[in-house]
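Protein: Aspartate carbamoyltransferase
Species: Cereibacter ovatus
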Amino acid sequence: MTFRARHLLGIEHLAPDEIRSVLDLADSYVDLNRRTMKQSDALAGMTQINMFFENSTRTQSSFELAGKRLGADVMNMSVAQSSVKKGETLIDTAMTLNAMQPDLLVVRHPSSGAVNLLASKVNCAVLNAGDGRHEHPTQALLDALTIRRAKGRIQRLTVAICGDIAHSRVARSNLILLGKMENRVRLIAPPTLMPPGVAEFGCELFDDMRKGLEGADVVMMLRLQKERMDGAFIPSEREYYHRYGLDAEKLAVARDDAIVMHPGPMNRGVEIDGTLADDINRSVIQHQVEMGVAVRMACMDLLARNLRAERGRAALGVMA
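Structure follows.
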């Protein structure tokens, strides 16, 4: 398999063949996770530290489960009780973690670029579990796997991403990945939730949801990220749902076999109609959760292979 990265900090630096390698390996882990015995020894003897500066039930539990199924020793660091809360800098934290000799470090941080900074200070492999408004690479990869399994391909599809584009690292990572894989991407949002300069990514922009959904193969809804909003971006949730909430009437203009996605957590009756979210014929939201564990297993497996190879080369150099 082709996967050259030392860290997984974003989709931006991954080549299409590396993306395919992650998805192909993740497919095999989907099969493993559906068996009675779900254990692998891919990370046996390795230590994984999960460090989440932001709360995330889905992502943190998914990474924890992925590490344990691969045989790693997994530690969840409680940031609320860590030295960071006592004034320690991020670089000091990185040096402290590095001294513990971990092999994999999974980090979520509210500041864009914080994970890249940590990666430059440690000797282990670092996985970005979401940093500010920058990227959320494993979410885009699990979305790609979900789409590929539902549609049979991850190229030449029309994908509509609708909602709070401006504050969404999920949208950014998906936009980059889908573009690399030659898809037609449409962004649908009110002007207040559309980031400046986004058209440079080669996507189509819509503020009319029905026009944006016409003929779409995939409809990806996004959560209103109120915690990142510092002003009034929408008149009201009721008005937002009327114009940009996905329901059966709006979905009717998409393709008959269009799938509905949402990274979670969902605000039912705000971004999406609850009945539609639970419709097993259209919604793949629960599949996304399942694919998340498999994709994170694949990412950690591939990074661990590269880390072992790097350490092997270094050992040979010392011996020489």
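Remarks: The CA atoms of residues 309 and 315 lie 10 Å apart.
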